[in-house]
Design brief:
Shape: globular
Largest sheet: 9 strands, mixed
Number of domains: 2
Order of helices and strands: EEEHHHHEHEHEHEHEHEHEHEHEH
CATH superfamily of the largest domain: Enolase-like C-terminal domain
Structural class: alpha/beta
CATH topology of the largest domain: TIM Barrel
Bound molecules: magnesium ion
CATH class of the largest domain: Alpha Beta
Strand content: 15-25%
Mean pLDDT: 97
Low-confidence stretches: none
Distance between the termini: 35 Å
Length: about 375
């Protein structure tokens, strides 16, 4: 029987070319057994203070893991969650819980020789259509439209564009310019590709503006609008819902299953975003999927960080018919293309979950060392 003998936390800092080369951060959890098997987990901590706090939290929770059998993953994960209620369950506690949970699933899979899909009870599909998900950053509308047109020609079924992000694109600030961009984008991606827009938090829209812009974009076949308002503005979302026909997406800021259940109860959302690196790991995401299936809604993995979260998200996505797309960052980047020797990419517009044990990824520890933040 294997025993967990080592629990490590570490933060990686990397430039993200899909976000105008902004420096972003993730905090990883690395578990190792007495026979040298390694499991990896991730939390999407982003800010330096959150990274540091999450590392401290993972280190502090390590007594619940040391000496344990990785096959007891579910019980250990529950015990971590039970400890964390005192100082959580949201925020930093949830980041730590998420990274530990993903690492435990990875380790259990590697020890037992099962892929994550097998441990989850099997997939309903072996291929999910892919979406190119990036932030607009170029000042030229024509350049951004053409860039996304290229992704569709390369096989992507659609594009999701973050507005109001870093860089010089200035999308989301001026109604006429935003409409013009949609016109150019539709011409560039052709009539069939799906278009989604995701309002960045820096953009301050009101209900009237959100309705007017969404309705106009719908003339060009908008598939979904993501977080047009702050997610707690339930009344605002209801008004958008009553005026617009496109799908409404939100949920990526939720931490717990209880928050997701409350969100579903509001009736304001069609596509629920979830990141296992934030919302309780693979265990938390799986609970959300069951709730989404019961409510007959849709979910979409917020997998926009490292290949660890992508591997977890992809396997989970393949277990349900309620998934719409799987998002890929279209520009090569350190956390996807360097961190693992077998990066995720699509074939003819579709992507398949991994079949190798655990997460099915091969994390390169030299790359971990290269981007690791030293304290
Ligand atoms: Mg989003």
């Amino acid at each position: 029987m294997s025993r967990i003998t080592k629990v490590e936390s570490m933060t990686l800092e990397y430039p993200e070319p899909n976000d105008n080369n902004t420096l972003r951060r993730v905090t990883l959890c690395r578990l190792e057994t007495d026979d040298g098997v390694v499991g990896w987990g991730e939390a999407i901590t982003m800010w330096a203070e959150a990274c540091h706090a999450t590392e401290v939290m993972i280190d502090g929770l390590s007594d619940l893991l040391i000496g344990r059998d990785p096959l007891d993953q579910q019980v250990i994960s529950r015990q971590v969650a039970e400890r964390a209620w005192w100082f959580g369950p949201e925020g930093i506690a949830s980041f730590a819980r998420s990274a530990i949970d993903i690492a435990l699933w990875d380790l259990r899979g590697k020890v037992s020789g099962q892929s994550l899909v097998q441990m989850l009870g099997g997939a309903v599909t072996d291929r999910i259509p892919v979406l190119a998900s990036t932030h607009a950053f170029d000042p030229s509308l024509e350049v951004e439209a053409e860039r996304h047109g290229r992704y569709v020609r390369d096989g992507f079924h659609g594009v999701k564009i973050g507005l109001g992000k870093k860089g010089d694109a200035r999308l989301g600030y001026e109604y006429d310019r935003d409409v013009r961009f949609m016109q150019l984008l539709r011409e560039a991606v052709g009539p069939k590709a799906d278009i989604m827009f995701d309002r960045g938090q820096h953009l301050k829209w009101d209900v009237g503006h959100a309705v007017k812009l969404t309705k106009k974009w719908e003339e060009y076949g908008l598939r979904w609008i993501e977080e047009p308002l702050e997610p707690w503005d339930v009344q605002g979302f209801r008004q958008i819902r009553s005026h617009c026909t496109s799908l409404i997406a939100t949920g990526e800021r939720c931490w717990t299953t209880e928050q997701y259940l409350r969100l579903i109860d509001t009736g304001i959302v069609d596509v629920i975003g979830c990141d296992p690196g934030r919302a309780g790991g693979i265990t938390g995401f799986r609970e959300l999927i069951l709730a989404v299936e019961k409510a007959q809604l849709w979910f979409n993995a917020h997998a926009w960080s490292s290949a660890i979260v992508s591997a977890a998200s992809l396997a989970l996505s393949a277990t349900s018919h309620r998934v719409v797309y799987f998002e890929l960052k279209p520009i090569d980047n350190p956390m996807q293309n360097e961190l693992v020797s077998n990066p995720f990419w699509h074939e003819g517009g579709y992507i398949s979950p991994r079949t190798a044990p655990g997460l099915g990824i091969d994390v390169d520890e030299k790359v971990v060392a290269k981007y690791r933040v030293r304290r």
